[in-house]
Amino acid sequence: MRRVILLNPYSAGSHALWAEGMAREWPAAAARCGGELEVEVFALPGRHWKWRMHAASMVLVERMLESGALDRRVDAFVVTDMLDVAQFRAALPAGHRDTPVVAYFHENQLTFPPHPERPEMEWDRHYAWVNLTSAWVADAIWFNSHYHRNIFLEALPGFVSRFPAPRPKDVASRVAAKSEVVPIGLEEDVLEAGKLRHTRCFAAGSPVVVWNHRWEYDKGPAAFLSCLDAAVQAGLEFRLAVMGQSFDRVPSAFDEMKERHAERILVWGHQPSREEYVEILRSADLALVTAHHDFFGISVLEAAAAGLGIVAPNDLAYPEHFGQGVLHDRDALEGAFLNALVRPPEGMAEASGRYAWGHVAEKAWEAMNRVWNGRA
Q1: Residues 6 or more apart from 55 whose CB is under 8 A from it?
Q2: What's the rounded Cα separation, in Å, for the pair 259 and 236?
Q3: Is 327:213 a contact under the CB 8 Å cutoff?
Q4: Which of 178, 284, 287, 333 has its CA 20 to 30 A from that of 306?
Q5: Which of 304, 305, 288 lies closest to 211, judged by CA?
């Protein structure tokens, strides 16, 4: 029996879905592949992300010690990009410092896009450097998409060159050699929702357009609002289901959206339960995606799995999910959205099926065995 401890310093959104799915599905996938696996999870609430990168490693080691989790053999630690791996190794008891550590990159602070609605400020390179050192000292790095892996590796040489000499050499090639792609799995509820679209919670009427992302600038709310306004100007009818988690600072586009499109809004705000969220997805028609940033795009994949038509840009991680043919140049998104309100695009549930947790967990089990075999 192999034993893995999974550390999730920022348990919110896709980070939380990933940890829950891995804990539930990974042992079953190992059993299907002829192995045995025990997974134990330690998590911290999803807030104060900068402080998590500074202190989560020490806090989580303390909690593992207090619980007795380190009294037994651990075959691997799987941690996220919100944890400083170098600090984590140093904080571990001496008997565990040689245990393999896999760093799972949901995101990275090196290629995160700048805020388009705030004055440009001097970039704090510290958090990108933490991501780099974590990748440098981890035994393996798993990225959630090929797009994410590629842009991180491409950015590393230029990033390192901005520091004084002497600098570490061949950083990108060293990270690339021990990295691969292990995506996030989709829950069975959204996959089943795509098969049950004949039952809807909305009355018949104009198409229901979905927003199901965080209420933050990098998901492109201003561009989303601009497309809605263009549809009204074109005399097209639609209704809105605006979901997703909001924080202390909400982009102004949401207030403007609520004011200008009040009579079209069916749903507004974060849903109190996963069941209600999936029910709304299943009952909607179209997902308009205007994000400036998506290293993976789980909300887009969930919408596709639930059977919605997708109008999305042909960059970021989306082409590896859906192919280029059904996506659009950014300057053509508005026109594509207007056309979709008249002639709804076909759903892409089939493309999402390969991200079912069963497939993804088996991929993770194979990747974990490559780590163990490399350490033999």
Answers
A1: none
A2: 18
A3: no
A4: 333
A5: 288
The residues near 108 (Cβ < 8 Å, ≥ 6 apart) are 81, 128, 131, 148, 152, 295
pLDDT value for 252: 95
**DSSP state string for 350-365:** HHHGGGBHHHHHHHHH
pTM reported for the whole predicted model: 0.94
Say how far apart CA 183 and CA 174 lie, in whole Å: 21
Over residues 110-163, the pLDDT tens digits come to: 998 776 655 555 567 899 999 999 999 999 999 999 999 999 999 999 999 999
Residue 105 pairs in a beta bridge with: 143
Do 321 and 303 contact (CB within 8 A), yes or no?
no
Beta strands at 179-181 and 265-268: parallel, antiparallel or unpaired: unpaired
Q: Which residues contact 356 (CB under 8 A, 6 or more apart)?
A: 185, 186, 188, 191
Tens of pLDDT, residue by residue over 274-307, are 999 999 999 999 999 999 999 999 999 999 999 9
CA distances 177 to 99, 138, 142, Å, are 19, 12, 11
Residue 364: partners with Cβ closer than 8 Å, 6 or more residues away: 22, 26, 29, 142, 182
Phi, psi of 128 (to 5 degrees): -65, -35
Q: What is the pLDDT of residues 267-280, one digit of tens each?
A: 999 999 999 999 99
Q: Which of 164, 221, 135, 197 is nearest to 347 (CA)?
A: 197
φ/ψ of residue 272, rounded to 5 = -70, -20
Q: Do the beta carbons of residue 103 and residue 30 sit within 8 Å?
A: no
